[in-house]
């Protein structure tokens, strides 16, 4: 204004005023830092900061000092000189000094001040002073510094944004820090300080400088434990990695990991599916399965679609299921739910069958038997949900390459593709619905035995069906023993033999046998009548009678076995047993009585049997139509009767019985003769 305009005014506006303003701002900054006091920082805070700088690979900078004294107040300028500037200045002075010249104090102090001012000058490309403040945790002073130079200084803009982000992180302002980190990324290739943040490791050498910078910042955020910021920054970094598949995979893996740590299961799954690297994707998938299982978040794990990863998921869960403890982890149930959700019922049944088989081999406890029963029942239900022609599963047999039923023939236990199968690997068994039903009933019988007789639990899981029938019968679980025998088409004689022996023990035993009997009697499906008139012995005989009626045999084989057992122990035959066997096979009963020299009973049986054939009480011997001219031919066991007559004739005490039998036979023969004559006469009349 005073100059009156023209060229001088233009020069003033374009050159002198900006330069003067810049110089004033710079000197004002120097005055500020020479008066601004540094803060006292605890040693543990400095140690933590050192770890963060290590993540940035800045821990070897001379700005880091953990040993300075904080007893006396000092300015940030003094702190900078003591920790960083002094070494740099002395090094420069000695590098410029001739070897034979002397150092004069007046000259040297002038050089020191000049070099220190150069290091502090805002327009200096070097960034030692702010770096020193950052390294020594002077975050408030550093924010003031950036605030003062921000409006007018155009040097180290990105570096200032970076150290300001560090200040925000120290004060817990993560979103502001993230914005500053992003703004600093645009200057990575231009500024000396930011160029130190680009990686020097081999895997980072191929990445762009900006991606290397993002990787360093991500390491810093991971070291500080800030997963939300990591996810946001990694998502920003993906835009810089359009053409770098390796970097994309690493970033997606980072995003997946931190989403999973935060419990963002759906977001973690989405990150997993976006990963372009198959190997990393499989690692993430394995981690997803393990972590969600440990957190018991199985519903999330099952509901994810796994569009192109279905086989990989199955392989991972199968591998975990087969490699870990059965009762501690529930990977088999998870795999079952996985297949059920996708309506793959045969595979679900195969999984449960394999689980049940392993429980039988590896867990010899009552809990293991209970879970085995449930597994086989679930497998049965699965096969009943599909069409009968497809209701089967594959079970490896001895000598096959596959170790467990249901193992994939195409993949190893780690879920990886195996080599081409050889001829020996095709050796498998096909289990149909009725085979699974047998295994289910067998496991249920084992559980019943373990529940009623705990000492048998250790061996119950490995015994075969015939051995289990004997154990059940010895324990008094006759219902289960008979049912199992019928299912496996086994002979029922051992069961009747065991029950008969228990009846014999009760017949001749004391109170101890009586009290024990009530427990096993109650375990069988017979309404026990525990009254004063009914003893345990009576109930045992009643149970035996009910079984003989419920399980008929050809020619009364079971009756014959029971009677033989009783007679061999000298126990009198109950009347109901005699009457029952008479109706089934009286001749066999006669032979049994003769074998044990029960002549009187045998003679009475012959007399009754002859009367029955003649029509007197024939219904008690199972004779539908007694002897007559129009009935079918009747017969008598003459061989056994002859043996009886011979035995009776040899003893004088049975002479009367001998005559009775002979008289009864004579009566029978007379009726036979008359009947024969009538039939022949009738035939002649018809012929004429």
TrEMBL record:
Residues 5-80 form the NUP160 helical domain. Residues 121-385 form the NUP160 middle TPR domain. Residues 401-423 are annotated as: Disordered. Residues 432-677 form the NUP160 C-terminal TPR domain. It holds the Pfam family TPR_Nup160_C. InterPro entries: Nucleoporin_Nup160, NUP160_helical, TPR_NUP160_C, TPR_NUP160_M. It comes from the Eukaryota. This is Nuclear pore complex protein Nup160.
């Amino acid at each position: 204004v005073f100059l009156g305009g023209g060229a001088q005014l233009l020069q003033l506006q374009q050159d002198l005023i900006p330069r003067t303003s810049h110089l004033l701002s710079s000197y004002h900054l120097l005055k500020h830092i020479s008066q601004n006091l540094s803060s006292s920082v605890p040693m543990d805070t400095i140690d933590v900061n050192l770890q963060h700088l290590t993540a940035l690979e800045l821990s070897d900078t001379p700005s880091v000092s953990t040993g300075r004294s904080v007893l006396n107040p000092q300015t940030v300028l003094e702190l900078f000189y003591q920790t960083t500037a002094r070494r740099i200045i002395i090094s420069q002075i000695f590098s410029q000094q001739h070897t034979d010249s002397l150092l004069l104090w007046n000259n040297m102090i002038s050089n020191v001040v000049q070099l220190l001012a150069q290091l502090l000058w805002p327009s200096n490309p070097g960034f030692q002073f702010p770096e020193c403040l950052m390294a020594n945790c002077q975050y408030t002073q550093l924010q003031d510094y950036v605030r003062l130079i921000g409006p007018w200084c155009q040097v180290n803009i990105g570096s200032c944004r970076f150290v300001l982000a560090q200040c925000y992180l120290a004060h817990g302002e993560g979103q502001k820090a993230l914005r500053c980190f992003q703004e600093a990324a645009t200057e990575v290739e231009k500024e000396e300080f930011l160029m130190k943040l680009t990686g020097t490791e081999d895997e980072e050498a191929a990445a762009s400088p900006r991606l290397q910078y993002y990787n360093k910042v991500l390491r810093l955020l991971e070291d500080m434990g800030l997963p939300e910021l990591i996810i946001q920054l990694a998502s920003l970094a993906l835009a810089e990695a359009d053409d770098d598949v390796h970097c994309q995979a690493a970033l997606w893996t980072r995003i997946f990991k931190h989403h999973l740590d935060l419990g963002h299961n759906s977001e973690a799954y989405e990150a997993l599916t976006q990963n372009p690297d198959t190997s990393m994707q499989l690692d993430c998938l394995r981690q997803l399965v393990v972590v969600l299982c440990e957190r018991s978040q199985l519903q999330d794990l099952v509901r994810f679609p796994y569009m192109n990863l279905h086989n990989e998921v199955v392989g991972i869960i199968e591998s975990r299921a087969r490699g870990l403890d059965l009762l501690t982890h529930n990977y088999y149930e998870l795999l079952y739910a996985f297949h059920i959700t996708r309506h793959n019922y045969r595979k679900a049944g195969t999984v449960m069958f394999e689980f049940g088989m392993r429980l039988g081999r590896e867990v010899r406890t009552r809990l293991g038997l209970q879970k085995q029963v449930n597994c086989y029942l679930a497998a049965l239900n699965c096969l009943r949900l599909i069409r009968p022609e497809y209701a089967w599963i594959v079970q490896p047999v001895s000598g096959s390459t596959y170790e467990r039923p249901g193992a994939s023939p195409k993949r190893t236990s780690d879920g990886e593709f195996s080599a081409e199968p050889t001829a020996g690997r095709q050796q498998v068994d096909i289990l149909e619905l009725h085979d699974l039903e047998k295994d289910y009933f067998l496991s249920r019988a084992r559980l019943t035995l373990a529940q009623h007789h705990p000492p048998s639990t250790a061996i119950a899981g490995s015994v075969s069906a015939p051995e289990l029938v004997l154990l059940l019968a010895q324990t008094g679980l006759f219902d289960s023993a008979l049912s199992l025998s019928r299912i496996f088409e086994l002979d029922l004689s051992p069961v009747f033999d065991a029950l008969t022996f228990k009846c014999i023990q009760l017949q001749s035993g004391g109170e101890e046998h009586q009290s024990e009997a009530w427990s096993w009697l109650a375990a069988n499906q017979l309404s026990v009548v525990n009254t004063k008139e009914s003893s345990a012995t009576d109930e045992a005989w009643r149970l035996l009678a009910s079984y003989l009626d419920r399980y008929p045999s050809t020619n009364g084989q079971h009756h014959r076995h029971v009677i033989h057992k009783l007679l061999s122990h000298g126990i009198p035959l109950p009347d109901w047993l005699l009457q029952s066997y008479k109706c089934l096979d009286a001749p066999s009963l006669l032979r049994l009585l003769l074998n044990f020299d029960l002549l009187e009973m045998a003679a009475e049986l012959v007399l009754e049997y002859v009367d029955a054939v003649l029509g007197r009480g024939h219904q008690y011997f199972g004779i539908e139509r007694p002897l007559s001219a129009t009935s079918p031919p009747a017969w008598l066991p003459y061989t056994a009767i002859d043996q009886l007559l011979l035995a009776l004739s040899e003893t004088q005490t049975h002479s009367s019985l001998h005559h009775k039998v002979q008289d009864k036979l004579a009566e029978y023969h007379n009726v036979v003769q008359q009947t024969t004559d009538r039939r022949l006469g009738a035939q002649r009349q018809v012929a004429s």
